[in-house]
Amino acid sequence: MDSAPSGLRMDSAPNGEEPTSWDEMYNINLMPTELFLKFRKELEGFRIGLNMEFYNAPINECHGKLVLKPLSYERKWKFIYEPLQHDVQLLSKKIPVTKFLNLQVGIDHSFKLRATGWKWKLTTCLGGDGVSRIRNKTSLGVCPGVDFRFGWRADYVLPEFTGAVGTGEPLFNMNSGRLQASLDRVEAILTHKTS
To answer: Which residues form the DUF7781 domain (predicted)?
Structure first.
């Protein structure tokens, strides 16, 4: 028999488990797993960049990249050299397939492995099952030549309200939903433009 008064019941899990605490249902993690420091120089219609990428999960790593790409709005490619991995990549820009889906293709050569191959990546701002996750980047311009970009993610289950009359089920039932949000990446971008 249901112990909730007046036919009201609050469940946080559909399998009948006890409701979890608010801390477990709503969690926001502000400790990024990726820190990027990007130095950019714009010169003669091209942007030359040095990226220092620090990863702290699952293991601590540091990657350095040299990036060259045209500045024009119609740019079609970018060139990346990773000296520590002895890897060279020529990548296309992200090609919109649908409103939320992008395709990127490229060619990759590893000097270490003496191998060349094709690569492709299908990305979206929606992740997981396409409904319960949002991934996005937010940019903040501090002053000319200094920008911050934040990569964030939110996994959620929306609250659900149900009820019934005359069926033996509760008059009102509420699943309070869940939210797990995290700040995954912080990028500091320093750009020097020639006049």
So the answer is: 21-192
